[in-house]
Specification:
By secondary structure, the chain is mainly alpha-helical. The chain has helices at residues 19-31, 43-51, 62-77.
């Protein structure tokens, strides 16, 4: 999961992928019957996730923050 903090949403994801690479990734996920979900959280939500024991939800590292949110949501949903 990637969280985009750029004010304009950016034209590239945090891996530096351009549009054609994203299209290939979407096609591959469809082939494998996987879904991708975008989650928009308020800073207060990240604070609550952090207080529940997922400390990386408060980090400025987008990858680590995204992983913490995925684990927290998976734990609640599962």
């Amino acid at each position: 999961m990637l969280v985009d903090d750029s004010p304009d949403g950016g034209g590239r994801d945090h891996n530096g992928d351009d549009g054609s690479e994203r299209v290939r990734a979407v096609r591959e996920r469809r082939r494998r019957r996987e879904i991708q979900v975008t989650v928009v959280l308020h800073q207060d939500d990240l604070g609550e996730i952090t207080r529940c024991g997922y400390e990386d939800a408060a980090t400025t590292d987008c990858r680590r923050r995204g992983e913490a949110v995925v684990i927290a949501v998976s734990t609640v949903a599962g």
